[in-house]
Amino acid sequence: MFLAGGLAAVTVALLVFGVVRARPPADPLPDHDGYLDRWSALHGGWRPTGVFPVGWFRVTYALAVRPARRGLHPHVVTGLGLALSAAVPLLGWAGGGWAMAAVPVLICCGLADSVDGAVAVMSGTASRFGAVLDSLSDRLGELLFLLALVAMGAPLALAVAAGVVGYLLEYVRARAAAVGMAGLGVVTVFERPIRIIVIAFAIFFAGAAQLAVHNGLPGVIAGTGTAFWLLLSLAGLGQILRAARSDLSER
């Protein structure tokens, strides 16, 4: 209860701080195409293609318009997303119906992770430090998601392995970009939205199993979700390494 109360206090404080410090931008906000042009310029010219990526960008643009128009700083949105992430292991530890309630929280975490970047791009407040802060928030959030599965019975060693490989995936991506890999390098099979979907399914069904009083089954489900995270992280790491080798060997 103390942790939940502290989390609620941090969330309220961030909202109040964001509203008080909000400064509407001087220039008009770009339309959707203009937003994509700005985003693409900041990401090595890569532009989203395919039904899901394009649809996701439309949703995040629509959600970011109002906070960007009001002048809400993207760091505040990042902080809110991390505060929501901290609620996930608390709900997982509570189990049952509480764990199942973590699913909408996870959806909000995923949206906040995209909306903060959209606000930064639209309002012209995108910065290198903001990119670092956003990446740090993502990695801490994913650690909290895996902790939720441990709280529901997943083996700790398996969760540690999944977390390490997931971190390696993003570390290799960042290092490859730092030494000259163009754009995003490659969109892997285990990008942020898929990670949230995997965790959401594992927590939901483990919570449902707890409500049904199936002894041992919640832990099996949580462990399976963690193993799936590990396997997809390994596949994504392999994709990044292949893309980096191909791109950087030509330079």
From TrEMBL:
Keyword Magnesium: no
Top-rank taxon: Bacteria
InterPro entries the UniProt entry points to: CDP-OH_P_trans, CDP-OH_PTrfase_TM_dom
TM segment ranges: 46-64, 76-95, 143-165, 219-241
This protein's record includes keyword Lyase: no
Entry keyword set: Membrane, Transmembrane, Transmembrane helix
Protein name from the UniProt record: CDP-alcohol phosphatidyltransferase family protein
Source organism of the structure: Fodinicola feengrottensis
